[in-house]
Amino acid sequence: MKNAKRTSFTVTKGDTLWGIAGMPLVYGNPYEWPLIYKANAGKIKDPDMIHPGQDLTIDQGASQTAVDAAIYHAKHRGAWKLGQPTSSDLKYLKGGM
Fold first, then answer.
1. Domain limits, the chain
2. What is the mean pLDDT of the segment spanning 54-68?
3. What CATH class is the domain 6-93?
4. Is residue 21 within 8 Å of 35, Cβ to Cβ?
5. Cα angle 30-32-36, degrees, rounded to a multiple of 5
6. Which residues contact 90 (CB under 8 A, 6 or more apart)?
7. Confidence bin at 58 (pLDDT 50/70/90)
8. pLDDT (tens digit, 9 = 90+) per residue, 20-48?
9. Which of 76, 22, 77, 8 is nearest to 47 (CA)?
């Protein structure tokens, strides 16, 4: 990770990782949501279910390789079911694409 810069973000009602990642002051690209998921793996059980009041870490110093892997995962994740992470989500957390 280059020059790791971390900030925090408090989830409010209606927020999603997709929406948070797309915010200009976060990443400005919703496809980078897996970066938030990975930085908060201990807090987020299912990336499709975050809850108001959760304090999330935002890693704004990710390497280009990490950003590319996150975007790849977001675009190729496959079918998902609310309430449980997909096998591809778990593989991504372990460093696979």
1. 6-93
2. 95
3. alpha beta
4. yes
5. 110
6. none
7. very high
8. 999 999 999 999 999 999 999 999 999 99
9. 77
